């Protein structure tokens, strides 16, 4: 009796839902399953990477749909799992950081697979390539995307609106639907942004959130309602003495659209990513400005009361921050080093945050 268990048959069954319109649906499903298995624990020289991968039959359509440019063919091989292993080795390191995406073009007539990289649209105020895929509902386009959005979470999505989140860890721990978690946080951090800039700021913070989910480091962020006094319990950190300037930088870009304004936005994005990758809490207000970073909170235990919190220091700090949601904070975002995340907010403060309440909060979303 074979007592070796594998989750590959489950993956192949799942991916067949996405390959029905291909000439060889079972074979393409095997290719997708191999790609998911390959990126779930992908490392290069011991470093964890999180490439974007898109499968298509028509490369020009892929580039036009996802606003990609400068496609560079790198190699080809038979339509088999062996080719996937090769392309991950030669293209995987190039796709880390999401500046370049990896394309897999299926040549059905010759049953071959051609692969390479293309330059994604990394401008801070534009939708990312994968976010463009999320907003599509055109099954005839024929694009399937894979993205690693956490230590163990992989997003599988096609252009017809079908999607799954695959947890490759096997750990029994509840996490929010990552897309829902990000949308709540983005809505909260831009709630009081200037009306004419809100859409641009939403794209800006959506990109940051996606990048943070792909990192190996955890993060913790809190949002103070705009106009409210900075909380005293978050003063153990680097508190800004002057306005951070992100709103001003976006205003400058909208007005001038020159090289200096573009570089300024990219630099602000890089700086916020670094702040949110530090051990402490990054504090924002609901207009999108940074108020403080690398902040720490200290738990005050009541005599005779001990409340168990599963997790490390970051998870305990998250629970403390959540206790302030009805007082000083409107939203708290948590992501563990293992890739599990939660976003909690005070829905009574900002009604815009209620727009997704009908969607289940637990993982998986379906």
Give a verbal description of the structure.
This protein is of the alpha+beta class and 366 residues long. It has two domains: 8-167, no CATH class; 178-356, YojJ-like (1. It is 33% helix and 22% strand. It is built from ten helices and 15 strands. The protein has helices at residues 8-15, 25-40, 59-66, 81-95, 129-135, 178-189, 198-214, 246-256, 259-276, 313-322, and strands at residues 43-44, 47-48, 52-56, 69-78, 100-107, 112-119, 143-148, 153-158, 163-167, 219-224, 238-239, 281-285, 290-295, 331-335, 341-345. The strands form three sheets. The protein has a seven-stranded mixed beta sheet with strand order 4-6-5-3-7-8-9, sandwiched between helices. Strands 11-13-12-10-14-15 form a six-stranded mixed beta sheet, with helices on both faces. A two-stranded antiparallel sheet has the order 1-2. Helix 1 crosses helix 2, helix 2 crosses helix 4 (81-95) and helix 8 packs antiparallel against helix 9. The longest helix has 18 residues, at 259-276. Mean pLDDT is 83; it is low at 301-311 and 349-366.
């Amino acid at each position: 009796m074979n007592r070796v268990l594998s989750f590959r048959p489950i993956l192949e069954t799942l991916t067949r839902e996405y390959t029905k319109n291909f000439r060889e649906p079972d074979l393409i499903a095997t290719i997708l399953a191999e790609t998911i298995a390959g990126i779930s624990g992908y490392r290069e020289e011991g470093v964890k990477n999180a490439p974007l991968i898109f499968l298509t039959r028509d490369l020009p359509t892929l580039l036009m749909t996802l606003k990609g440019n400068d496609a560079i063919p790198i190699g080809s091989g038979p339509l088999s799992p062996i080719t996937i292993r090769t392309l991950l080795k030669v293209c995987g390191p190039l796709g880390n950081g999401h500046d370049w995406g990896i394309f897999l073009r299926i040549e059905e007539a010759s049953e071959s697979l051609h692969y390479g990289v293309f330059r994604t649209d990394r401008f801070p105020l534009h939708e990312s390539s994968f976010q463009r895929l999320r907003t599509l509902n055109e099954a005839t386009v024929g694009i399937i995307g894979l993205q690693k959005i956490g230590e163990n979470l992989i997003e599988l999505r096609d252009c017809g609106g079908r999607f799954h989140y695959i947890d490759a860890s096997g750990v029994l721990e509840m996490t929010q639907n990552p897309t829902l978690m990000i949308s709540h946080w983005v809505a909260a951090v831009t709630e009081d942004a200037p009306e004419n800039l809100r859409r641009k700021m939403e794209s800006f913070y959506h990109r940051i959130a996606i990048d943070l989910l792909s990192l190996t480091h955890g993060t913790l962020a809190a949002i103070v309602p705009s106009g409210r006094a900075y909380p005293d319990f978050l003063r153990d950190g680097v508190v800004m003495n002057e306005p951070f300037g992100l709103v001003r930088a976006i205003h400058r870009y909208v007005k001038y659209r020159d090289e200096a304004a573009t570089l300024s936005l990219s630099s602000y994005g890089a700086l916020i990513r670094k702040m949110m990758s530090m051990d402490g809490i990054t504090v924002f207000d609901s207009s999108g400005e940074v108020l403080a970073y690398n902040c720490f909170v200290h738990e005050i235990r009541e005599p005779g009361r001990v409340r168990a919190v599963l997790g490390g220091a970051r998870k305990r700090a998250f629970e403390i921050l959540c206790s302030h949601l009805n007082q000083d904070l409107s939203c708290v975002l948590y992501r563990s080093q293992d890739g599990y995340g939660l976003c909690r907010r005070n829905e009574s403060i900002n009604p815009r945050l209620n727009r997704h309440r009908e969607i289940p909060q637990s993982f998986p979303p379906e």
